[in-house]
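Our preliminary data section would be incomplete without showing what the modeling component actually yields. Below, a chain of 103 amino acids is followed by its predicted structure, encoded as tokens that our downstream tools consume directly.
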Amino acid sequence: MARTGRHGQTLVRTGTRTRGTPETNPALGAAIMEVVDTQLREGTPPETRRTLDRLVAAGYPEGEARQLIACAVTSEIFDVLTHKQPYDEARYIAALHRLPTLP
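Predicted structure:
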């Protein structure tokens, strides 16, 4: 059964999981959220706070906005680890600017 999420995304449920959604690792998720929290607390880069404020102003609940930022963090980590590329702050900031479109 398909349904449309709050912001227009299509969600398909199979059993108790949404098809296409990978299993999650709670410890990894907490570590990524700690990165988001640190960026917001320390203001580095400042675009993280600006992105949170922009998404909340656009109607996203703060928790959902923080999860979107976590997606940008995860995307940057993926590029660094998978493609053996160095951290690229400009690439990360560009991903923040594109939110809520996911990287």
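The mean pLDDT is 84. DSSP finds four helices and three strands in the chain. Preliminary results of this kind motivate Aim 1 of the renewal.
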